[in-house]
């Protein structure tokens, strides 16, 4: 499968940083890595539970056997059109069953999908096309008033190697998606025979979640991604009685494999797709399909928790609601636990791989005060100070990590890799954490902020997350982000961008509140900006870059 590459720019493995042989051997020996291709998750499910519903959306559903057959058909027709094992294709579909069909169709052809999010636009896609050397693009016609075909035309002009554009919906001159899926359309139906296959080679390319700069590409291998899906489903005790709801953009690691769609499939559980995560729509779907597990970003979890006050249908079938993606205070966790579900699970994950989460049945203090513990017994976490030395147990520092599902380098990004990986192969997460050393929270991780999310005000360094924690504590503040804005005298000044829950506060009132909490004078905001909502990234995290652009220009 790693051979035969001919069309895009460079071989798939050019610029891929593999796991070192000794650790790879350890993970195989431990049974984490099984040597199976990623799409074996589908073939296994189709063999064990052929008649069980695999995926559902508002339009249609597929059993595992049907999904397996359509994935074969898509693969066969991609191959007939000249796509080869090792080629890369940008995959950008909304949360529909067709997302899963396309994902498995590409995998079955040995093609490596680049997992774009529906909110990405030409700047991101052009960047992904350039780095990956993608030869194709799978899109929908239009969504949320945006014409993806027009974007495709521009991408093709800038990236001539992007030859295959496939459109779900009105194709507008491109290849219709139905030409690949429709049993009645021309073309073969049997997937190409899998050639030489390397389970340690990239199976898919995820995009990094950082809110600074353009995302990087993250190559996840068959071995490490199958392990992620299998182990996370197991740790969440998923069974064929569960149903998973994809409420976040399906191409994101969190709803894709943590346990998400792929984890659900490993136990024969159905997955429901929706593009509308509003409480009104989501609660009705949860009720209709008896959804038991879902994953949300913090802001969405808070909206769902509030909506439980007035929505006529409540999501009572939910057994696990994973909440993660950005920092959550204990107060926010308590609010979700009390109002939305006792099944709250905090999850601290990253496209780069490592997952930490609280487990069903964990004591309430673990659920409230920590972001869980590592998924794998072989995750090796180090917490270091600014000199790279290990901090004392229980102290804060930057999290460095390596393990059976953590990358060893970004894809085709040598410069970033020199900064982001240690000589021993640890990924420098940039996250400020503490790992509790003793007591009831021992072994659990608390994320306290981002190492670089600091404001240099005058001669002082102020932690944005420390200030945010104080802001969140104010009953009149619904959401808050502390950002640095340029200042002639101070270098940087502190701006608190907030969403008020009721009456607006003045800066003086806010200072009074912060004084009462003992916040030092240099760490108090110089500016208070009330916003109707905070700008979000494509997956729904608060986007400080956009806040700075918005406020810096006003
Ligand atoms: C998830 O993945 P990404 O790649 O979009 O973002 C990773 C980054 C982490 O490095 C961390 O800075 C932040 O997002 N993060 C959290 C967090 N979960 C993620 N920060 C504080 N508390 C948390 N619970 O966001 C992701 C991937 C898989 C599962 C869940 C989330």
TrEMBL record:
DNA-binding recorded as keyword: no
Question: Superkingdom of the source?
Answer: Bacteria
Q: Which InterPro entries match?
A: AMP-bd_C (IPR025110), AMP-bd_C_sf (IPR045851), AMP-dep_synth/lig_dom (IPR000873), ANL_N_sf (IPR042099), ATP-dep_AMP-bd_enzyme (IPR050237)
Domain AMP-binding enzyme C-terminal span(s) in chain numbering? 467-541
Q: Does the keyword DNA damage apply?
A: no
Q: Name one Pfam family in it.
A: AMP-binding_C
| Residue ranges annotated for the AMP-dependent synthetase/ligase domain, each copy included | 44-411
Alphabetical UniProt keywords: Ligase
MF (Gene Ontology): ligase activity, forming carbon-sulfur bonds
Q: By its UniProt entry, which PANTHER family does this protein fall under?
A: LONG-CHAIN-FATTY-ACID--COA LIGASE (PTHR43767), SURFACTIN SYNTHASE SUBUNIT 1 (PTHR43767:SF10)
- Recorded protein name is 2,3-dihydroxybenzoate-AMP ligase
The organism encoding this protein is Mycobacterium adipatum
């Amino acid at each position: 499968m790693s051979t035969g590459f001919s069309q895009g720019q460079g071989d798939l493995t050019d610029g891929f940083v593999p796991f070192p042989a000794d650790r790879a051997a350890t993970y195989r020996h431990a049974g984490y890595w099984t040597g199976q291709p990623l799409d074996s998750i589908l073939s296994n499910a189709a063999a064990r539970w052929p008649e069980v519903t695999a995926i559902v959306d508002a339009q249609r559903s597929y059993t595992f056997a049907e999904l397996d057959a359509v994935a074969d058909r898509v693969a066969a027709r991609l191959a007939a059109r000249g796509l080869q094992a090792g080629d890369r294709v940008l995959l950008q579909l909304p949360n529909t069953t067709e997302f899963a069909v396309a994902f498995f169709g590409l995998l079955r052809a040995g093609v490596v999908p680049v997992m774009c999010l529906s909110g990405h636009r030409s700047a991101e896609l052009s960047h992904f096309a350039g780095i990956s050397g993608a030869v194709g693009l799978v899109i929908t016609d239009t969504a949320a008033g945006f014409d993806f075909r027009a974007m495709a035309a521009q991408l093709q002009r800038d990236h001539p190697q992007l030859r295959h554009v496939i459109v779900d919906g009105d194709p507008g001159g491109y290849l219709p998606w139905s030409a690949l899926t429709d049993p009645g359309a021309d073309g073969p139906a049997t997937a190409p025979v899998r050639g030489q296959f390397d389970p340690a080679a990239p199976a898919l390319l995820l995009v990094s979640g950082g809110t600074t700069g353009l995302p990087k590409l993250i190559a996840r291998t068959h071995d490490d991604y199958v392990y992620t899906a299998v182990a996370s489903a197991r740790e969440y005790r998923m069974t064929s009685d569960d149903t998973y709801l994809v409420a976040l953009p399906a191409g994101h690691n969190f709803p894709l494999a943590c346990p998400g769609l792929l984890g659900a499939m490993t136990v024969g559980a159905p997955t429901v797709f929706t593009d509308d995560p509003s409480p009104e729509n989501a609660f009705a779907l949860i009720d209709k399909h008896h959804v038991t597990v879902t994953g949300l970003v913090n802001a969405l979890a808070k909206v769902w928790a509030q909506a439980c006050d007035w929505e006529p249908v409540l999501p009572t079938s939910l057994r696990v609601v994973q909440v993660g993606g950005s920092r959550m205070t204990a107060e926010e966790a308590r609010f979700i636990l009390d109002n939305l579900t006792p099944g709250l699970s905090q999850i601290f994950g990253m496209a780069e791989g490592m997952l930490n989460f609280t487990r069903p049945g964990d004591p309430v203090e673990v659920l409230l005060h920590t972001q869980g513990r590592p998924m794998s017994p072989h995750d090796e976490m180090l917490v270091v100070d600014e000199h790279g030395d290990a901090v004392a147990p229980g102290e804060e520092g930057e999290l460095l990590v390596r393990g059976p599902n953590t990358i060893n380098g970004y894809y085709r990004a040598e410069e970033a890799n020199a900064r982001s990986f240690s000589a021993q192969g640890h990924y420098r997460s940039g996250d400020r954490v503490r790992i509790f050393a003793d007591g009831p929270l021992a072994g659990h991780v608390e994320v306290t902020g981002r190492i670089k999310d600091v404001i240099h005000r005058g001669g002082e360094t102020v932690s944005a997350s420390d200030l945010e924690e104080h802001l969140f504590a104010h009953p009149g503040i619904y959401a808050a982000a502390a950002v640095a804005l340029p200042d002639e005298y101070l270098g940087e000044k502190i701006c608190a961008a907030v969403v008020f829950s009721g009456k607006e506060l003045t800066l003086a009132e806010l200072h009074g509140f912060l004084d009462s909490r003992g916040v030092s004078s240099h760490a108090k905001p110089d500016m208070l900006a009330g916003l109707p909502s905070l700008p979000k990234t494509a997956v729904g995290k608060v986007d400080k870059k956009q806040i700075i652009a918005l406020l810096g220009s006003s």
